[in-house]
Design brief:
CATH class of the largest domain: Alpha Beta
Distance between the termini: 144 Å
Number of helices: 9
Number of strands: 4
Largest sheet: 4 strands, antiparallel
CATH topology of the largest domain: Tetrahydropterin Synthase, Chain A
Length: 222
């Protein structure tokens, strides 16, 4: 008599491994679907972030660092020192001309402005001497006003012991008028070369000018 195990048909015992394999396939498909959804969500987030950055760039918004630097600059405005108006007779010889000039100095800080107020009589005297040596023709020209501002920047700090060197003028070498002049110049060069060389004089070092700009609040020449 055959046993009970042998009596079970083959087509009834086989479905167990096939069902387990089908279950694994379904689980794998679900995992793949989850991964695809996560990738799609990440791509959408990156795309939205890039679009937001582009909008900020078009609107001119550069972030907190620019705002902080702008606030820092706004918190340190320049220091201005307004002087009483100057009324000075000019150096014109043809007629009596005078200038009425309002000057405001832009200095590096408030401490120097307070220090300069203590020297104000000497400062005003230095500026008056500069203007008094000008002619109306010099002051009416734009370049003349610019030169006046540069001279005021140098001379206004001199009473306080600050020496500012004047710019060196540019000179062009003139050609010799004749061959005799050229020979004489060559002889001088040879003599200078044979003589013992002297040590060049050291130019005084220029200090930093605390006056940064000279502003004219009024400028009348009559």
């Amino acid at each position: 008599m055959p046993s009970a195990a042998a009596a079970i048909p083959a087509d009834v015992a086989a479905p167990a491994p096939a069902g387990r394999k089908k279950k694994l396939v379904v689980i794998g498909a679900l995992v793949l679907l989850v991964l695809l959804m996560a990738a799609a969500g990440g791509a959408w987030w990156l795309k939205a972030r890039a679009a937001k950055a582009a909008e900020l760039a078009e609107a001119g918004e550069d972030g907190p660092s620019v705002t902080a630097s702008a606030k820092a600059d706004a918190s340190r405005p320049p220091t201005f020192l307004a002087l009483d108006p100057f009324v000075v007779n000019l150096a014109d010889k043809e007629a009596d001309r005078y200038a009425q000039i309002g000057i405001t100095l832009e200095v590096e800080n408030g401490a120097f402005a307070d220090q300069m107020k203590a020297y104000m009589p000497a400062v005003r005297n230095a500026i008056l001497l500069i203007i008094a040596h000008k002619t109306s023709r010099e002051l009416l020209d734009r370049s003349g006003k610019e030169n006046l501002a540069e001279e005021i920047m140098r001379e206004a700090v001199r009473p306080m012991g600050i020496e500012i060197a004047a710019p060196r003028p540019v000179t062009l070498a003139a050609e010799p008028a004749a061959s005799a002049a050229s020979d004489a110049a060559s002889a001088v060069v040879v003599a200078a070369a044979s003589a013992p060389a002297e040590k060049p004089k050291r130019r005084a070092e220029t200090q930093k000018n605390p006056i940064q700009h000279v502003h004219f609040s009024s400028f009348i020449v009559q």
